[in-house]
Structure formats: C-alpha cells, structure tokens
User: Fold this.
Amino acid sequence: MTKPPRSKPLLRDIDAPIRSQPQRKRNPAQPQLLFDPMPDRVEPALAKVKQRPPRGDQWGWEAKWDGYRLAVHAEPQGVRILTRGGHDWTHRFPDIAEAARALGPATMIIDGEAVVLDAEGRSDFGLLQKSLGASGNKAGNRASNAMLYAFDLLYLDGHDLRGVEYGSRRRLLEDLLNGQDGAIQISEELDADPDVLLEHARRFGLEGIVGKDRDQPYRSGRTGDWVKIKCVESEAFFIVGYEPSTALTGGFASLVLAAYRGDELVHVGNVGTGFKEAGTASLRKMLDKLAWKRKQPPVEPGDAGGKVIWVQPTLIAEIEFRAWTADGKLRHASYKGLRERQDNAVVFRLD
Assistant:
C-alpha cells in the first residue's frame, strides 16, 4: 500500500521570515514603475465648441492657445513628443524635449500646446509655421523658439492618472512645473467670470477661452468635459486653386478654398488676406507643382474667379473667419498658415 505524501509544514522554521510571492517582472525600460504601465500613446481629449460658457463652480478656465497639440512622453531612457495624430516630432521641438529631460528622472505624460509668441505675448500660428518650415517631412525643420503650455498630466511615476478627476491632475501638474520658466510652462487657470474672460480675450486679440470640468476624468475625444468659446472661427480647408497676382510676379491675389460635403469637395470661398510677403513666393511654388491636369476642376467653379489656376487638393490651410454667408461662403476670411497631415489636420465638413 502506497503511503500518502507527507504534508508540508506551514512554517519550516518558526524563526524564518515569511516571504511574499515574487511580483511579476517589470519592464526593464521602466525600472521604477510599480503599478500601471506607461501608455505608448493616448488619444487626446478635445474641446467642444460652445457659443456661450457653461455655468458652474466646477469649470476651470484658460486661454485658448493657437499652436500644435502635443503629448510629451518623458522616461529615464528618453523623451518622445507626439502630435495629435500620433507622429513623433521630438526632433522638431528640441527646446521642449530638453525642458522635459530637465524635469528630472520622473516618468510622465504631459498634455499641452506648442506655441510661438509674438511681440505682445500672444500665440501666433503663423510664426509657429514659419519656425517649423512649410513641410513636416523635412528633418531639419525645427521650432527652436517654440514653448509648450502644459494643461494636463496623464501619467506620473507608475500611476495612470486618466481615471483621476481633472482638478487633482491639475494640482499634480502645478507641483511638477512649479518654478519652471523655460520651454515648458503651466497654462494658467484664470480666476474670473468666463464672460469677462471672453471679453478680455477679444480685446487682446486672443483666439478664445477653454473650460474644463474639474470633476471629470480624462476621456479621449469630444465628450463635453472640455469646451471652447471662440472669439473668431478658425478651421482647416483644402487649397484647390489660386488667382495669379497682377501686381506681384510669382505671387497670387487669393487662394480658392474647399470643404467636404459628404464625400465631395465644394467651393467655400476665397482668401486674399493674412499672407506674409516672405512666404508667398514659396507657397506659389508649391501650388505650381500641384497643377491640376484634368479638364474638370476639383470643385464646381461657381464664383471662384475667371482666372483661377486649379491645383490638386493636397495642401491644407488654416483659415480664420468671422461668419458664413447665406450661400455657404466664408465671410472676412484670413490666411493663418498651412496645417500638416501629421498633426491630424481635419478638413472642415459642411454637414
């Protein structure tokens, strides 16, 4: 008869310490993390456009910055700067990357907006584009004078903060950036009635204001947790043609713009102001390389002009405007600069 196996004593040595089970192996690339793995990328939270500010003490208000949305991933082994569309632009923002390294050995994801400021201290999208260059595909185009206005903290030292309410994330970010005056700075909360803030934003020529619900977690997409109230409208449109200039050789009088209606492009007006003389010639050269070869233009001509040179709908322009006309055209349009597909530039949809 086989003897039953002897049971093991609960404690082999009554004086020996009790040891816990070994933890699962940690990622060697993140040696100090004890809890949550660091996400490779987080889809950004986006602000819904509102005509008037919502009411309630839970809303915190900031200036609306006019630049590129970025996520800064800082780890002991390096820094990555990702665009809204998930492209790595670390090489294009060297000062921001260096400032992230200087924050110390902490592992973090900072959400913010890269801007270049004008002489009055306002963010200027045109200056940012000039600093970056016309194309995002050239490795040499760097915005060495850009800075990041940080407004959220998504991850810190092993803790995924997306499930934490915004008010707490905000306090952690303020502690992290306390005293920083370099290329990464806090986007200040403005302690005033939002209607008063909006009036000041109009007076100083700012884009508008952004409100964030302090009680909500970080949720990707346009959930309504974040809202924006604009002083002026600003959207992205395809350039589908241009009117040659009669006064400036190699220039143009206006650009012809288009937006989507369903799957088709439709003409939404022309823009003839906002151009910087230094960039007009280079933009004209880019447009000439995109000359439209087909008989039928890319959009119904309508009132686009009699001498339009049509081009392939490839370049995307950021256009500031005041309103829409009754027949679906932009009113008081002004050119701000080219947007880049790598920044997840979304062409405006009329529907």
Q: What stands out?
A: Helices lie at 94-101, 125-132, 166-176, 194-203, 277-289. The mean pLDDT is 85.
